[in-house]
Amino acid sequence: MPLIILLLLVGAPQQSPPADDAVPVPASGEAAPAENETGNRTGEELTRVLGEINSDHPKAKRLAALKRLLPIAEKDPERVSAALVPLLKEEDSEIRGEAHLALGMAMFGQECPLAIVEALHDKDDHVRHQAVVAFGMFTKYAAAAGPLIIAAAESKDHYVRQNIPFALRHLGKSDEVLTAMKRLCRDGNSVVAGNAHLYHFEITSDANIYVGYLLRETVGLPPKELAKLNQDQKEEHKFNVYLAATKIYNLMRDRPLDLAHGLSHHLKHDDPRIRQCALRQFRTMCTVSKSSFRSALKVKPHQQLKSLAADDPDEGVRLWASVVLELLKAGPPADAPQKLQPLPTIDMFEQPAEADDSSD
User: Does residue 17 come out as left (phi exceeding 0), alpha (psi in the -120 to 50 range) or beta?
Assistant: First the structure.
C-alpha cells in the first residue's frame, strides 16, 4: 500500500563550522595578531563598555553600551555581573530589560542568576521578555529558584509560560513540579501546551498522555469548528497538525515501543476520530520500518483490533482495524528499512543571495 507522509520540521538554523581552508591566513610578511594582544583589546573594550552603562551617561548611550556588552560579557563574568547589579533595579524598564539579558550572557554555562528568575515576575512586559531570553540559556538553578519557576507556570504572560516546561524538566520529579507541568499541559496556548506535554513525557515516560495529546493535535478540529477560525488561526492550526505529525514520526523512529503502547491505550478512546487516528498510526508502524513493525507486534493489539473490526459503532474504525490486522499478519514490506531515518532540518530563513560579480 503506497504511503505518503507529509511532514514539516521547524528548527533554528544550524551554522556549520568553517572549513579549514576558510580560516584567514596572514599574507606573506604579515604577522598574525598575538593571542594576548587580542585579549588585551577585548579587555579594553570591556572596560570602556562597562564605563558607559552606568547612570552618569544618557539613556541612549547606556542602551547602546549594553548591546555592545552582549558578545563580550562572558569574558569576565564576575566583573560584568557586579557592574550590572545596580541596573537590574533601575526604574527604567528598557535599562532593566537589557541588563538582565546581558547578565544572562555573562553567566552563560553557569548556574542561572536568581535575579533573572525573579525578573520572570517583573511587572513590565519588556523586562519579562528579556528575562525569558536570558532564562532560556540555563539548565542549572539555585534551590531558591525552584519555587519562583513553579510559580511562573501560572504567569499571565504566555511568553513566560512557554519557557517554564523546559526549566521544570531540570527540577526533578517532585509533586510540585509534576502538578505545575500538568497545569501547563492544559494551557490554552498551543505552544505552552506542546512544550509541557513534551517535557512531561521526558520526565515521566508516560506515553499515554503524550501520545493522546499528539493524536488530538493531528486529528485537528472538526470541520464546523475549523470554519469558525479566521485565516491566521487556520494557518496556526495547520502548523500545529504538521508539528504533531513530526513528533509522532520521531517517536516512531526513536521510541517506537512507547508509541505503540500509547496508540494501543487510545484504541479505547470515546472519540471515534481518535480511535481512527490511532489505527492509522498503527498502519504506518506496520509499513515504514521493521523496527516499528516489531514494536507494534510487541504490544499484542490483535484482540483489541478484532473487537474493533467486528463491533465498533464507527464504520471508519471497523475498516481501519481490519486493515491493521491484515498488515500485522503480512509482516513489514520486504524493502522496509530497519529503522526510519531522521527528518531533515528545514532552514526556514531565506539566505541572502550572493552578489553577481559578472556584470561590468
Answer: beta
Angle formed at CA 166 by CA 162 and CA 340, multiple of 5 degrees: 105
Q: Which residues pair with 10 in a beta bridge?
A: 346
* pLDDT tens, position by position, 138-178: 999 999 999 999 999 999 999 999 999 999 999 989 999 99
End-to-end CA distance of the chain: 57
Angle at 211 between CA 276 and CA 192, to 5 degrees: 120
- Residue 42: Cβ within 10 Å count: 14
Contact 161, 192 (CB under 8 A): yes
> Considering all CA atoms of the chain, what is the largest pairwise distance in Å, rounded to the nearest integer?
86
φ/ψ of residue 346, rounded to 5: -100, 125
Interval 10-36: pLDDT, tens: 333 333 333 443 434 444 455 555 555
Burial class of residue 257 in the structure, from the number of CB atoms within 10 Å of its CB (0-12 exposed, 13-18 middle, 19+ buried): middle
Share of the chain above pLDDT 70, in %: 84
pTM of the model: 0.79
